[in-house]
Amino acid sequence: MNRTILGGSPSIKELLNLIRRVAASKTNILVTGESGTGKELVARMIHDAGPLKNGPFVPINCGAIPENLIESELFGHRRGSFTGAVNEKIGLFETANDGTLFLDEVGELPLPMQVKLLRAIQERVFRKVGGTDDIHVDVRIIAATNRDLEVSVAKGLFREDLYYRLNVILIKTPPLRERKGDVELLANHFLKKFGGRFNKNFTGIDPEVIVALEAYDWPGNVRELENVIERAVTLENNTRITLESLPSALRNAARTRIAIEIGGGNGKPNSHAGEIRLPAPDFSKGPIQLDKILSEVERAYLTQALNHTRGVKRKAAEALGITFRSIRYRLTKLGVDLGTSDDEEES
Q1: What is the pTM of this model?
Q2: Checking phi first, is residue 204 left (phi over 0); if not, alpha (psi -120 to 50) or beta?
Q3: What confidence tens digit (pLDDT) does each residue in 154-185 have?
Q4: Rounded Cα–Cα distance for residues 22 and 38 (Å)
Q5: In this structure, are 120 and 235 located in the same domain?
């Protein structure tokens, strides 16, 4: 199992350097970032390089456990302490003793639970539900969230004292759109992973697929890229990943990265991503097929606008300064299929 963040972009190099610097201590750490950016992987890397690496790494998703059970999950309970407590239970704090407790989505904790968590983190002491004895543990606390906890504190949804107790060191995981140089590396890594899992032999990924992957914004980040490659490996019948095995949103992202060259009228990838290059026409080579060139320009702008608005045609029309009826007409004329619904009515 890979427990290393892959990438060579500046943001990833900075992240890896910070992980190395903080791992040697037992200091509380708060990891923030969008969903799918590898927050748990960061926590595991810190644990594996830290003084408690021989102890357990115990993760808990604070947002996935019902409010009435979260205290029992964290601290355990005595037999008979509440209805259904037929046996004594060891909580995750105790399970993580001499190791790391990873509190994922800590911003989802209800306020009453935050009070009890604060004492446990401050003193490394807690009591089981229904218990009277203090239990002492030696655990490292790493918390993670995709929320802005400062905003939650300001709204009274998250305790300020708990926030500062967790946020001794802050680590931010960069979204994939800010580390585009890593997309190809990650795609090939996932290709090898799923090719082996599904017993398929691939020789690589077509260049236009890389163009599409690097053009996409990746709202789901690395997790979404992994899912896209798994899908492609599953559907692909060739020995290379081709555009046809990508979702429509990614195929259309590729079109916006194609340079339009007047000479032959054929688009091909270029190093100036996102540009439409229109060199001076050379009439000595014959007609330049102006209608075809203008159609490709129109297609590129329509596709870019729809990608920008996540396929919402009305917003794309506003971005282009045209009416909703006009964008529907142009999309139909050009045969652009972006998987968007056509059931919107013009007001």
Answers
A1: 0.72
A2: left
A3: 999 999 999 999 999 999 999 999 997 899 99
A4: 17
A5: no
